[in-house]
Amino acid sequence: MATLPARTTAESYPSARAETGYSSGTSTATRPAGSTLRLSQPSAEFFDELAGRCGAVITGRHTYDVVNAWNGNGPLPGAPLFVLTHTIPQDVPESHPPYTFVTGGIADAVAQARTAANGKDVSIMGSAGVQQALREGLLDELIVHLVPVLLGGGVRLLDGVEGTLRCTRVVDAPGVTHLAYDVIR
Q1: For residues 132 and 7, what is the distance between their CA atoms, to the nearest angstrom?
Q2: pLDDT tens column, 30-49
Q3: How far is CA 131 from CA 10, 47, 56, 155, 156, in A?
Q4: How many CB atoms lie within 10 A of CB 24?
Q5: Mean pLDDT, the chain, whole residue set
Q6: Domain enclosing residue 49, as ranges
Q7: Helices (DSSP H) in 83-167: which residue ranges?
Q8: Which residue of 37, 109, 175, 184 is most buried, as measured by CB atoms within 10 A?
């Protein structure tokens, strides 16, 4: 069996409104926010595989604020969380492992997260971090969970970013298609 070196991945999570299209399955998966999500068997297997590969998470300050710092649980419980920010927040919930706030940019965050991941993948959440990682050549894989819901607004994940992607995996599940792409450099 060949082993790939640890990768830096970005994953686009559906909004709460879009999740209703596929969150009524009969299987459970550990959701990035640590709660259990009822999914179809193919979706549960896909999410659990991703969670098992992930050794650290990078998120932007906006995402951190919107989800109320995950109430100290992090997006993937037990995985170190690195928050890209210009200003470290005054009130930080107690968490294990403790959250790390990175003011030196995406390259610094990726370097710190790779060290903390101990050979596992580093996952980037939030459009700003994903865009910065793509621009700086730091992203190896992009994972998209495509849900057939038109939201009419929101933040575009790849706005203003150019590049070439190669589709490496498609998992069709009820209400969602999971897509994995390698970033071609």
Answers
A1: 16
A2: 554 445 667 889 988 998 89
A3: 10, 22, 18, 12, 10
A4: 12
A5: 84
A6: 8-184
A7: 106-116, 127-135
A8: 109
Structure tokens at 28: 């459970």
pLDDT tens string 90-135: 999 999 899 999 999 999 999 999 999 999 999 999 889 999 999 9
pLDDT at 13 over 60: no
Do residues 134 and 124 make contact, with C-beta atoms less than 8 angstroms apart? no
CATH number, domain containing residue 138? 3.40.430.10
Residues contacting 174, CB < 8 A, separation 6+ = 22, 25, 40, 43
E-assigned strand segments in 81-152: 81-84, 100-102, 121-125, 141-146
Lowest pLDDT segment from 17-31, 48-62, 82-96, 131-145: 17-31
In a domain, 165, yes or no: yes
Supply the pTM of this predicted model: 0.85
Q: Give the whole-angstrom CA distance, residue 35 versus residue 42.
A: 18
Query: Is the distance from CB of 109 to CB of 84 less than 8 angstroms?
Result: yes
**Is 2 contained in some domain?**
no
| Whole-angstrom distance, CA of residue 112 vs CA of residue 16 | 30
Number of continuous H segments (helices) and E segments (strands) in the chain: 5, 10
Give the total number of structural domains in the chain: 1
